[in-house]
Amino acid sequence: MNDEEKISKNLLILMFVFCLILLAAVAASIIFYSPKTFEPSFSESETAEESFSEEIKVSENMEESVSQENIFPININTATFEELQLIPDIGPATAQLIIDYRNEYGTIVAFRELLSIDGIGEKTVERLKEICIIN
Fold it and tell me: Model confidence over 98-107: pLDDT tens digits?
């Protein structure tokens, strides 16, 4: 064998070893990052039905929180009493005051109008501008 053949053979072996190492790394990452299976476990006093009932409650709470997240931006002029209370810093009393204001004066055309409602100050108006709309 001449030197050129030895170099080609060594290069081929080196590439083969590199491919094996790469394959092992990919296999290890698949094993490491694959989702773990979940085996339900019940306490002695808990039945499968009770556990399933709890899972449904958790699922309903997750759906409720997702629906609350998807409600923004809230339109101040069309929001219901309940929707207004989803806005941070707006409780039942302030929500009712907003509705009363809309009923008395009509459509709110600027966020600055909200300053005339008790309990709503400059900081609240600035936060409302970020998560609410008026149209």
Answer: 999 999 999 9
